[in-house]
Amino acid sequence: MPRRNWNKVFVTGGTGFVGLRVLSALVETGADVTALVHPDHENRLGVLRRYVRVVYGDVWNAASLKGRARGHGVVVHMVGSLRAQPERGLTYRQLNLVSARNVIGMAVGDGVPYFVLLSAAHRPAGVPKEYLQSKREAEAYLHTSGLRWAIVRAPLIFDRTQPGGRFFAALSWIGALPLLRVFFGRRTPLPVDVVARGMARLALQPQPPADRVLYAGDLRRLGRVPRGWRPRVTVSRARTKRPNPNADEEDAPFGWLPPLPPEHP
Questions:
Q1: Strand, coil or helix: what is 138?
Q2: Is 227 a residue whose pLDDT tops 80?
Q3: Nearest to 219 by CA among 203, 198, 205
Q4: 187 Cβ contact list (under 8 Å, min separation 6)
Q5: What span, in angstroms and rounded, lies between the C-alpha atoms of 155 and 61?
Q6: What's the distance, Cα to Cα, between the start and end of the chain in Å?
Q7: What does the alpha-carbon distance between residue 212 and residue 9 come to, in Å, rounded to a whole number?
Q8: What percent of the chain shows pLDDT beyond 90?
Q9: Which residues, 6+ apart, have CB-to-CB distance to 35 below 8 Å?
Q10: Which fold has domain 8-251?
Q11: CA distance 51 to 28
Q12: Alpha-carbon gap, residue 114 to 101, rounded angstroms
Protein backbone atom coordinates (compact mmCIF):
# COMPACT_ATOMS: atom_id res chain seq x y z
CA MET A 1 0.00 0.00 0.00
CA PRO A 2 1.44 3.43 -0.90
CA ARG A 3 2.50 5.78 1.86
CA ARG A 4 -0.33 8.07 2.90
CA ASN A 5 -0.65 11.33 4.81
CA TRP A 6 -2.33 9.52 7.71
CA ASN A 7 -2.44 12.64 9.91
CA LYS A 8 -4.43 14.63 7.32
CA VAL A 9 -8.13 14.07 7.96
CA PHE A 10 -11.00 15.22 5.73
CA VAL A 11 -14.32 15.53 7.57
CA THR A 12 -17.87 15.89 6.28
CA GLY A 13 -20.74 16.69 8.63
CA GLY A 14 -18.46 18.52 11.05
CA THR A 15 -21.02 21.19 11.96
CA GLY A 16 -23.54 18.82 13.55
CA PHE A 17 -24.01 17.64 17.13
CA VAL A 18 -21.52 14.77 16.80
CA GLY A 19 -19.36 16.32 14.10
CA LEU A 20 -18.27 19.32 16.15
CA ARG A 21 -17.03 17.02 18.92
CA VAL A 22 -15.18 14.82 16.44
CA LEU A 23 -13.47 17.88 14.96
CA SER A 24 -12.45 18.97 18.46
CA ALA A 25 -11.09 15.52 19.31
CA LEU A 26 -9.08 15.40 16.07
CA VAL A 27 -7.62 18.87 16.63
CA GLU A 28 -6.73 18.11 20.25
CA THR A 29 -4.90 14.98 19.08
CA GLY A 30 -2.80 17.08 16.73
CA ALA A 31 -4.39 16.07 13.42
CA ASP A 32 -4.28 18.25 10.32
CA VAL A 33 -8.02 18.65 9.73
CA THR A 34 -10.00 19.83 6.72
CA ALA A 35 -13.74 20.35 7.16
CA LEU A 36 -16.15 20.31 4.23
CA VAL A 37 -18.68 22.98 5.14
CA HIS A 38 -21.87 24.26 3.57
CA PRO A 39 -21.25 27.98 2.88
CA ASP A 40 -24.17 28.99 5.10
CA HIS A 41 -22.97 26.96 8.08
CA GLU A 42 -19.35 28.01 8.57
CA ASN A 43 -20.27 30.09 11.63
CA ARG A 44 -21.37 26.91 13.41
CA LEU A 45 -17.72 25.93 13.77
CA GLY A 46 -17.25 28.62 16.41
CA VAL A 47 -13.70 28.64 17.81
CA LEU A 48 -12.88 25.54 15.78
CA ARG A 49 -12.68 27.76 12.70
CA ARG A 50 -9.22 28.84 13.90
CA TYR A 51 -7.91 25.28 13.99
CA VAL A 52 -9.28 23.61 10.85
CA ARG A 53 -8.98 24.21 7.13
CA VAL A 54 -12.39 24.94 5.62
CA VAL A 55 -13.43 24.02 2.10
CA TYR A 56 -16.89 24.55 0.64
CA GLY A 57 -18.95 21.89 -1.04
CA ASP A 58 -22.29 20.14 -1.21
CA VAL A 59 -22.43 16.42 -0.50
CA TRP A 60 -25.50 16.17 -2.74
CA ASN A 61 -23.60 17.65 -5.67
CA ALA A 62 -20.83 15.26 -6.70
CA ALA A 63 -19.24 17.83 -9.02
CA SER A 64 -18.65 20.22 -6.10
CA LEU A 65 -16.58 17.56 -4.31
CA LYS A 66 -14.00 16.85 -7.00
CA GLY A 67 -10.45 17.41 -5.75
CA ARG A 68 -11.51 18.53 -2.30
CA ALA A 69 -9.92 15.60 -0.43
CA ARG A 70 -6.76 15.23 -2.51
CA GLY A 71 -3.68 14.69 -0.35
CA HIS A 72 -5.58 13.45 2.70
CA GLY A 73 -5.10 10.08 4.36
CA VAL A 74 -8.66 9.48 5.55
CA VAL A 75 -12.20 10.74 5.01
CA VAL A 76 -14.57 10.75 7.98
CA HIS A 77 -18.18 10.98 6.80
CA MET A 78 -20.87 11.98 9.32
CA VAL A 79 -23.69 13.42 7.21
CA GLY A 80 -27.14 11.93 7.70
CA SER A 81 -30.52 12.42 9.34
CA LEU A 82 -33.10 10.61 11.45
CA ARG A 83 -35.87 12.66 9.89
CA ALA A 84 -37.05 12.56 6.30
CA GLN A 85 -39.36 15.04 4.55
CA PRO A 86 -40.48 13.29 1.35
CA GLU A 87 -42.68 16.24 0.35
CA ARG A 88 -39.47 18.30 0.05
CA GLY A 89 -37.49 15.59 -1.70
CA LEU A 90 -35.67 14.74 1.53
CA THR A 91 -36.05 10.97 1.55
CA TYR A 92 -33.90 8.72 3.73
CA ARG A 93 -32.20 7.46 0.59
CA GLN A 94 -31.27 11.03 -0.38
CA LEU A 95 -30.12 11.99 3.10
CA ASN A 96 -28.20 8.91 4.16
CA LEU A 97 -27.27 7.02 0.99
CA VAL A 98 -26.75 9.60 -1.75
CA SER A 99 -24.58 11.79 0.47
CA ALA A 100 -22.38 8.83 1.42
CA ARG A 101 -22.18 7.60 -2.17
CA ASN A 102 -20.98 11.00 -3.41
CA VAL A 103 -18.37 11.37 -0.67
CA ILE A 104 -17.11 7.82 -1.23
CA GLY A 105 -16.79 8.66 -4.93
CA MET A 106 -14.79 11.76 -3.97
CA ALA A 107 -12.42 9.67 -1.83
CA VAL A 108 -11.88 7.18 -4.66
CA GLY A 109 -11.32 9.91 -7.25
CA ASP A 110 -8.95 11.89 -5.00
CA GLY A 111 -6.86 8.87 -4.04
CA VAL A 112 -7.77 8.77 -0.34
CA PRO A 113 -7.23 5.16 0.75
CA TYR A 114 -9.16 5.00 4.04
CA PHE A 115 -12.79 5.86 4.83
CA VAL A 116 -14.62 6.05 8.18
CA LEU A 117 -18.43 6.03 7.95
CA LEU A 118 -20.71 6.99 10.83
CA SER A 119 -23.71 4.66 10.63
CA ALA A 120 -26.33 3.41 13.09
CA ALA A 121 -26.58 0.27 15.20
CA HIS A 122 -30.37 0.14 15.18
CA ARG A 123 -33.54 1.97 14.25
CA PRO A 124 -34.73 4.26 17.07
CA ALA A 125 -38.31 3.91 18.24
CA GLY A 126 -40.71 5.80 16.03
CA VAL A 127 -38.30 6.06 13.10
CA PRO A 128 -39.38 4.30 9.86
CA LYS A 129 -37.49 1.22 8.70
CA GLU A 130 -36.32 3.14 5.62
CA TYR A 131 -33.87 5.00 7.88
CA LEU A 132 -31.87 1.91 8.79
CA GLN A 133 -32.24 0.49 5.30
CA SER A 134 -30.61 3.61 3.81
CA LYS A 135 -27.77 3.33 6.32
CA ARG A 136 -27.14 -0.30 5.40
CA GLU A 137 -27.23 0.55 1.69
CA ALA A 138 -24.56 3.20 2.29
CA GLU A 139 -22.46 0.59 4.10
CA ALA A 140 -22.89 -1.85 1.21
CA TYR A 141 -21.77 0.79 -1.27
CA LEU A 142 -18.64 1.42 0.79
CA HIS A 143 -17.89 -2.32 0.81
CA THR A 144 -17.65 -2.31 -2.99
CA SER A 145 -15.63 0.91 -3.30
CA GLY A 146 -12.15 -0.61 -3.14
CA LEU A 147 -11.28 1.62 -0.16
CA ARG A 148 -10.12 0.38 3.22
CA TRP A 149 -12.96 1.18 5.57
CA ALA A 150 -14.29 1.32 9.09
CA ILE A 151 -18.03 1.52 9.74
CA VAL A 152 -19.15 2.88 13.11
CA ARG A 153 -22.61 1.58 13.99
CA ALA A 154 -23.28 4.09 16.72
CA PRO A 155 -25.97 3.67 19.39
CA LEU A 156 -27.96 6.56 20.82
CA ILE A 157 -25.50 9.41 21.46
CA PHE A 158 -26.07 11.91 24.26
CA ASP A 159 -24.43 14.91 25.92
CA ARG A 160 -23.86 14.46 29.66
CA THR A 161 -24.48 18.18 30.32
CA GLN A 162 -27.91 18.32 28.69
CA PRO A 163 -31.29 17.56 30.30
CA GLY A 164 -31.60 13.80 30.70
CA GLY A 165 -27.84 13.36 30.47
CA ARG A 166 -27.60 11.71 33.88
CA PHE A 167 -30.33 9.23 32.98
CA PHE A 168 -28.60 8.20 29.75
CA ALA A 169 -25.26 8.09 31.56
CA ALA A 170 -26.77 5.61 34.02
CA LEU A 171 -28.08 3.48 31.14
CA SER A 172 -24.65 3.62 29.54
CA TRP A 173 -22.97 2.42 32.75
CA ILE A 174 -25.51 -0.37 33.29
CA GLY A 175 -25.25 -1.51 29.67
CA ALA A 176 -21.48 -1.80 29.99
CA LEU A 177 -21.70 -4.32 32.85
CA PRO A 178 -20.26 -7.73 31.80
CA LEU A 179 -23.51 -9.70 31.96
CA LEU A 180 -25.71 -7.07 30.37
CA ARG A 181 -23.44 -5.99 27.54
CA VAL A 182 -23.80 -9.45 25.99
CA PHE A 183 -27.46 -8.67 25.34
CA PHE A 184 -27.57 -4.86 25.20
CA GLY A 185 -23.99 -3.78 24.53
CA ARG A 186 -24.50 -2.77 20.91
CA ARG A 187 -27.45 -0.54 21.81
CA THR A 188 -26.02 0.98 24.97
CA PRO A 189 -26.16 4.81 24.82
CA LEU A 190 -22.77 6.51 24.72
CA PRO A 191 -21.67 10.04 25.69
CA VAL A 192 -20.81 12.16 22.67
CA ASP A 193 -17.29 12.87 23.98
CA VAL A 194 -16.54 9.13 24.12
CA VAL A 195 -17.85 8.64 20.59
CA ALA A 196 -15.83 11.62 19.34
CA ARG A 197 -12.55 10.41 20.86
CA GLY A 198 -13.21 6.91 19.57
CA MET A 199 -13.83 8.10 16.02
CA ALA A 200 -10.79 10.37 16.12
CA ARG A 201 -8.55 7.53 17.26
CA LEU A 202 -10.05 5.24 14.63
CA ALA A 203 -9.31 7.78 11.92
CA LEU A 204 -5.74 8.46 13.01
CA GLN A 205 -4.22 5.08 12.27
CA PRO A 206 -0.71 5.19 10.75
CA GLN A 207 -1.76 2.20 8.66
CA PRO A 208 -5.40 1.65 7.69
CA PRO A 209 -6.75 -1.22 9.81
CA ALA A 210 -8.48 -4.24 8.37
CA ASP A 211 -12.02 -3.51 7.18
CA ARG A 212 -14.31 -3.74 10.19
CA VAL A 213 -17.66 -2.79 11.69
CA LEU A 214 -17.51 -1.20 15.14
CA TYR A 215 -20.16 -0.97 17.85
CA ALA A 216 -20.63 0.75 21.21
CA GLY A 217 -18.11 -1.45 23.03
CA ASP A 218 -15.43 -0.72 20.44
CA LEU A 219 -16.08 3.02 20.70
CA ARG A 220 -15.93 2.81 24.47
CA ARG A 221 -12.49 1.20 24.33
CA LEU A 222 -11.19 3.59 21.70
CA GLY A 223 -12.63 6.60 23.52
CA ARG A 224 -10.89 6.02 26.84
CA VAL A 225 -8.57 8.80 27.93
CA PRO A 226 -5.08 7.34 28.51
CA ARG A 227 -3.63 8.08 31.92
CA GLY A 228 -1.53 11.24 31.83
CA TRP A 229 -2.71 12.23 28.34
CA ARG A 230 -2.77 15.95 27.58
CA PRO A 231 -4.28 17.47 24.43
CA ARG A 232 -1.80 19.05 22.04
CA VAL A 233 -4.27 21.85 21.48
CA THR A 234 -7.02 22.78 23.93
CA VAL A 235 -10.17 23.68 22.05
CA SER A 236 -13.06 25.31 23.91
CA ARG A 237 -16.36 23.53 23.36
CA ALA A 238 -17.67 24.91 20.09
CA ARG A 239 -21.26 24.23 20.94
CA THR A 240 -23.05 23.57 24.21
CA LYS A 241 -26.69 23.48 23.16
CA ARG A 242 -28.53 20.72 21.43
CA PRO A 243 -29.79 21.46 17.92
CA ASN A 244 -33.08 23.35 17.80
CA PRO A 245 -35.73 20.73 16.95
CA ASN A 246 -37.91 23.40 15.34
CA ALA A 247 -35.32 24.41 12.75
CA ASP A 248 -35.26 22.35 9.56
CA GLU A 249 -31.52 22.91 9.12
CA GLU A 250 -30.88 21.34 12.50
CA ASP A 251 -32.80 18.16 11.84
CA ALA A 252 -29.65 16.54 10.45
CA PRO A 253 -27.55 15.90 13.58
CA PHE A 254 -24.59 14.66 11.55
CA GLY A 255 -24.55 17.34 8.87
CA TRP A 256 -26.85 19.61 6.89
CA LEU A 257 -29.93 19.13 4.76
CA PRO A 258 -29.76 19.43 0.97
CA PRO A 259 -31.40 22.46 -0.68
CA LEU A 260 -35.01 22.40 -1.74
CA PRO A 261 -35.75 21.16 -5.26
CA PRO A 262 -36.19 24.06 -7.75
CA GLU A 263 -39.94 23.63 -8.02
CA HIS A 264 -40.37 24.43 -4.31
CA PRO A 265 -40.22 28.02 -3.01
A1: helix
A2: no
A3: 198
A4: 121, 122, 155, 156, 175, 216
A5: 29
A6: 49
A7: 19
A8: 52
A9: 11, 14, 15, 23, 45, 48, 52, 53, 54, 55
A10: Rossmann fold (3.40.50)
A11: 10
A12: 15
Cα within 13 Å of Cα(235), Cβ side? 24
Q: Which residues contact 47 (CB under 8 A, 6 or more apart)?
A: 235, 236, 238
Q: What number of CA atoms fall less than 13 Å from residue 94's CA on the CB side?
A: 19
Nearest CA among 228, 256, 224, 225 for reference residue 90: 256
Which residue blocks in the chain are alpha helix, DSSP H? 17-29, 92, 99-109, 129-143, 165-175, 178-184, 192-203, 216-222
Q: pLDDT, tens digit, for every residue of 47-105?
A: 999 999 999 999 999 999 999 999 999 999 999 888 887 877 789 999 999 999 999 99
Nearest-angstrom CA–CA distance, 209 and 16: 26
SS3 (DSSP) at 100: helix
**Domain residue limits, the chain:** 8-251
> In 11-95, which residue ranges form alpha helices assigned H by DSSP?
17-29, 92
Q: CB under 8 Å to 48, separation ≥6 — which residues?
A: 14, 20, 23, 24, 27, 35, 235, 238
What is the pTM (predicted TM-score) of this model?
0.84
